[in-house]
Design goal:
Number of domains: 2
Radius of gyration: 20 Å
Number of strands: 8
Bound molecules: adenosine-5'-diphosphate, magnesium ion
Distance between the termini: 35 Å
Structural class: alpha+beta
Strand order of the largest sheet: 1-2-3-5-4
CATH topology of the largest domain: Transferase(Phosphotransferase), domain 1
Number of helices: 8
CATH superfamily of the largest domain: Transferase(Phosphotransferase) domain 1
Largest sheet: 5 strands, antiparallel
CATH architecture of the largest domain: Orthogonal Bundle
CATH class of the largest domain: Mainly Alpha
Length: 305
């Protein structure tokens, strides 16, 4: 780790701190992320190796943050080596970026062309992961990094711990946000698929337009109520099998509201795309690949991506 000069803490996520650092030899800025993939006497466990090589493969896409290398470090406290992932450094994440439009000196909407471009890049990155059989499962604005000058969005925080469920609390006991979690996950479905990521993409799309979260629940139950109040309480007719999911209860019965009213700044094509990302039945939800061909993107110059 002597190769790097630690500059500042840029994030405090689910598993540890993320530092901005400089490669002393090249001057390149990097992000150092400590993983919870601890090594034992035998060296790097094969599960950790698999995760790292998967991450390396996925980060070949321009729309996934690039993993530059992996460093082993002896942990000072207990002598157990720890793995650090070294990523390319990006200016900011989508959460900080949206906040700057909400609370900054000149608050205002994100330009519609920027929302369109970021969403397209997000779909492209998600399509790339899904085509390699990898679900992200925790897509949210904090996990999308931005290169502001070049207008590039990249998916981060991918691939580690796919065998585990996303924890409810981080190591600092911060509550892990539920706002982007798909209803089938909230209802305890055990075999969920790519649709969970597309639900999150829909929530992120709406949040870029609104500059505030679409479904800001603070418990799993409240999260479902937020969703049901806008989209209507799901029925067996809309979503076959919903009432047999593990955590299904009897909920208040709400009628679906007009989705366009939740995203007043979005035109009809955008609202249509959003409604396809927020379909209750995961099998009916639009895929990332299909989304890229949706008319909402017709006015975008796709050749630049
Ligand atoms: P966690 O699993 O702890 O959530 P993340 O990879 O999401 O870890 O990183 C936490 C935060 O650190 C991100 O939300 C982002 O603000 C910042 N961050 C992570 N990676 C980078 C990077 N490559 N460049 C700049 N900032 C980063
Ligand atoms: Mg994160």
């Amino acid at each position: 780790m002597e190769k790097y000069e630690k500059l500042e803490k840029v994030g405090e996520g689910t598993y540890g701190k993320v530092y901005k650092a400089k490669d002393k030899a090249t001057g390149q800025l990097v992000a150092l992320k400590k993983t919870r993939l601890e090594m034992d006497e035998e060296g790097v466990p094969p599960t950790a190796l698999r995760e790292v090589s998967l991450l390396q493969m996925l980060s070949q896409s321009l729309y996934v943050v690039r993993l530059l290398c992996v460093e082993h470090v002896d942990n000072k406290k207990d002598g157990k080596p720890v793995l650090y992932l070294v990523f390319e450094y990006l200016d900011t994440d989508l959460k900080k970026f949206i906040d700057s439009y909400r609370k900054g000196p000149n608050p205002g909407p994100l330009a519609p062309a920027m929302v369109q471009s970021f969403l397209f890049q997000l779909c492209k990155g998600v399509a790339h992961c899904h085509s390699h059989g990898v679900l992200h499962r925790d897509l949210k604005p904090q996990n999308l990094l931005l290169d502001k000058d070049r207008g590039i969005l990249k998916i981060a925080d991918l691939g580690l711990g796919r065998a585990f469920t996303v924890p409810l609390k981080s190591y600092t006991h911060e509550i892990v946000t539920l706002w982007y979690r798909a209803p089938e996950v909230l209802l305890g479905s055990t075999h969920y698929s790519t649709g969970v990521d597309m639900w999150s993409v829909g929530c992120i799309f709406a949040e870029m337009v609104r500059r505030q979260a679409l479904f800001p629940g603070d418990s799993e139950f409240q999260q479902l109520l937020h969703i049901f109040r806008l989209l209507g309480t799901p029925t067996e007719k809309q979503w076959a099998g919903v009432t047999t999911l593990r955590d299904w209860h009897v909920y208040p019965v709400w009628e679906p509201q007009n989705l366009a009213r939740a995203v007043p700044a979005l035109g009809p094509d955008g609202v249509d795309l959003l409604s396809r990302m927020l379909k209750y039945d995961p099998a009916e939800r639009i895929s990332a690949k299909e989304a890229m061909d949706h008319p909402y993107f017709d006015s975008l110059d796709k050749s630049q991506f």
